[in-house]
Amino acid sequence: MIDVVIVDDEALVRTGFTMILNATDDLRVVGTATGEDALDVVAATHPDVVLLDIRMPHVDGLTLLRLLGDLPQPPAIAMLTTFDADEYVMTALRRGAAGFLLKDTEPEQLAHYIRALAAGGVVLSPRASRVLLDDRSGVGASLDEGARRVATLTDQEQQVLRLVAEGLSNAEIGDRLTVGAGTASRQHERELYAQTVLARERNQLAREMHDVVSHQVSLIAVQAGALQVTASDPAAKEAASAIRSLASTTLEELRSMVMLLRAAGTRSPGLAPQPTVSDLEDLVTASGLAVTMEGSLPPDLGSARERAVYRTVQEALTNVRKHAPGSAVTVRQWSDERSVAVAIVNGCPTSTPLRLPSSHLGLLGLHERAELLGGTLVYGAEGTASAWSYTCRA
Model pTM? Predict the structure, then answer.
């Protein structure tokens, strides 16, 4: 039997992982703890493996990692995180962590990872593995704050920085760059200030998305995973699996957006691979709705149009699940010489809709996306308040 201790400041994570691991035949959770009482719990239970949250409010995971590593017989420790591209990946590994795991890891995969940790192995999520490889090959600049900031500078700014490092005055820098001394200094300062403001705003947005939105979605994923492995009713298991899968997909998109926001300056890494029209079938299947697909679109739409079509269908299906559950849906795609279009039409609900808050920001975003492509988004009720249609032309 492999003994495990879970250290996380969030009770829902601790209970969720406990349910998942205790449902196996060879794993058992012998203790759970917050950062403040983790050392006492580990010392009292002598676990084989510790799952340790890397970000906690009172005692951070990196500090605990060092303290746990100083125990006479330290356990194998895997860091838990919402984002596997966390800037602390390399720091944790250097301090002795044996793994880096996402909180929305599938239950079966989580159990497999813990068995590997107990056997002396190292487990890393795919993106954390890439961070490690980048660092080994000498291109892990994002892990060094100074190098990361330099990498965001324009070519001219980096040239100015090199000249400053050589000890040149403003006048000498101006001569080298063939601009006036005052101009060289003022332009450099203005551009650096603008980038500092941009970086501050982006990082603030990234923190909000990480600390609030992503945190809540990760809790949904953990709890759904726990229900998936403990429920006896097949329908409940299937529903829990669908919820966990949707939460995991949402987290993946949030990770991409947070990485983009954190990339301050002009050298952004860009978004991770975005969904295309070819992904519509998977989207429809995951929705759990009775959807009829009609028509098709040409293969050379361009990435912007493909995203517009996908996001329109995604938003429409989300609204159907919320406001017209059980209704039949038709998704029709077509194109002509000037544009491509997709229309989504739903019927009346067969069960009582949930009363969920709505800000209409999703529809506003679709409007803006269509307008940027020179197109339109039209939506409205079809005969009854619950039967709606959405048409996006780009």
Answer: 0.56
